[in-house]
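Subject: Protein record for review, amino acid sequence with backbone structure tokens
Why sent: The fold of this protein is of interest and is recorded here as tokens.
Enclosed: The protein record, placed directly beneath this head.
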Amino acid sequence: MESTRRKKLLMSPVKGSIHVATSTPARWRSLGLVCAAGLTAVWCIASLWFPFGWDQGMFATVGDAIERGGLPYRDAWDIKGPLAYYGFALAQFLFGRHMWSIRILDLGLLFVGMAALAAMVARLTLPRRGYWVASVFALWIGSLTWFHTVQPDTWAAILIILAAWPLVSGRPALREWMFSGAMIGCAALIKPLYLAFLILPLMQIFEQHRSGGGAAPPALKGWTRAAAMIGIALAPLALAVAWFAWRGALGDLIDVHILFTWNVYSSGAPASPGDVVRRTVKFFLSDPVVFGLPVIVAGAWSLWRNSRSSARLILTWAMVAVMCVAAQRRFFKYHWVVVFPAVLLLAAVGFDQRMRTGRLLT
């Protein structure tokens, strides 16, 4: 009786083939995931004691001016989009004037981004792959060193993750496209060039319209849906313009955030196409990306064969993110965070495909 039971445990669910029982590998997988989650938690807790770097000190100064009733660009000078400073002001308002106040808000946003990224990976592969990717995303940001933490570009990356969340491996309704547009509009309040990510929902709107599917009423055509989504995306920008105009600082916003950034700040940055290509290649040949390149390429190929819609979305996401980094021509480490999520999604698909094909894990 015991012998018969043991034989059943050793039977594979695939065509009756026999392999080693999976209980021990399952324990190792669970242990590895617990260790990754523990390391992520330790880093998150340790980050509360990180000091401010140059950037965080400037952002906190502008946030302090806002919390005292002032405005960015007029009462405190820096060139990022207004959402960056209002985030610091909100943290000071909620938690007080401490260096760890903004880190609490930053960790909250990071957890939201991790959860959304894990959900997307779970749709494309398995839930446990999503847990791994969420931890890797946090630890990859942590690997940039303390100076590059609490960066508004990371907040923008999380907003883009939220924008893509209803789009990956799904057929969104109009309300989900509008949510996507709103997230991209908020990201544009950090840097206007992030409006380029509107191409992601626009691609799916017209693809879904051509296929005749979707949860929206049939009378609501593709152009109408696109106009509604773009209108929602522009709403945060319109509200910001109205706010600064009402407070008499619209000219300061334009002079500092737009004109100074365009005419002065960007003038000393690398401009040649060759330099842009070289720095982009350098990112993909740097740690840890270079070690995952085979898996990333395999993930792109596997996704293209199995789900053209998801493949187009994620590959376009990656290309737009790289273009946004290149357009800034500064190539700071934290600029690349907007590329991380798309790369991790492709890596997760490639890893999952390798495990399934290799019969190493089930």
